[in-house]
Design goal:
The structure is a homodimer of 150-residue chains. With 150 residues, chain A is mostly helical. Helices cover 73% and strands 8% of the residues of chain A. The first copy, chain A, has a domain of 103 residues: Arc Repressor Mutant, subunit A. Chain A has 6 helices and 3 strands; from the N terminus they run H-H-E-H-H-E-E-H-H. The structure holds a DNA duplex (30 and 30 nucleotides).
Amino acid sequence: MNKDNPRHEVFGAMQSFGVNSVMFRNAIGKKLGLNITDIGCLNYMLIKTKSTPGELSRYTGLTSGATTSMLDRLEKLKFIRRLPNLKDRRGTMIELLPEARSMILPFLAGAQAAQQELLKEFSDDDLEIVTRFVNGFSKSIQDQADQIDL
Amino acid sequence: MNKDNPRHEVFGAMQSFGVNSVMFRNAIGKKLGLNITDIGCLNYMLIKTKSTPGELSRYTGLTSGATTSMLDRLEKLKFIRRLPNLKDRRGTMIELLPEARSMILPFLAGAQAAQQELLKEFSDDDLEIVTRFVNGFSKSIQDQADQIDL
DNA sequence: CTGTATTATCAAGATACTTGATATTCAAGA
DNA sequence: TCTTGAATATCAAGTATCTTGATAATACAG
């Protein structure tokens, strides 16, 4: 394992990104007066828009009981709402409310602007390479997570 | 904002990676019988090897009091140890114990193997592009996090 | 249909977190 | 040097959150 080999720097970059992502959402959570669990859930909802308690339970690592009370908090705060799940009458659909989205987006604006600038430094071919790598890397840890859960 | 534009797929890939990272470390934490906070801390320590309570407090989003008791737990479980901070006698250095590392690494092995395979599909030039993009993206959210904290 | 699994919720008890106070040390300036 | 204000980590008390185990409703497989 040669650490001077540029082929290994990319792993470090991915790790740093993971760390910075966490610190980023924690910073937003603190501003909104939310605990770490709740802002983690909202971060996920911001990406997925719709989800279910079961899925959120798997993402957050919480038990189903804790997930219920997390959703109770977020519902009371008008960040999400529960809807009937038409595909499974036992279940519930969780929806991020538009007002919640507009409450969070301002915190992302600066980063998004910087990301648009970053994009200009790369060709379409470049970005195809990046996407392919990141998706591959992402899959490697997703497969491993599934393996561990089995 | 054209969603069919491949220039936007790369953002989705980064988001998915962030989500998968969280689920990955939660899966490992569950196997080790650790709570979400503690596995988050260990994940960070696995990257940094050495840290301080203050730094871990900023990463986890915990207050200093909660950080102290988190470190008490991890110290009792022999995952970390506290050492005197030679550069600041108020402070403490936190060190990941080698035994802890060897306890966690087996869970990463499968993913690391897949990542080595992935690496083969990319040239050095490709990887330089990926690294540059990921670092730039990482910086965009780090800067924004700093901005929010101020 | 019948039995088993899955989904989400609830209540009680266990765990972890926040707040505010404290002691120590640092860093800057008189 | 000596003083002052800030930063480090810890602790104890009170609060918030989480886990566990039980429950009801529905899905799904045989």
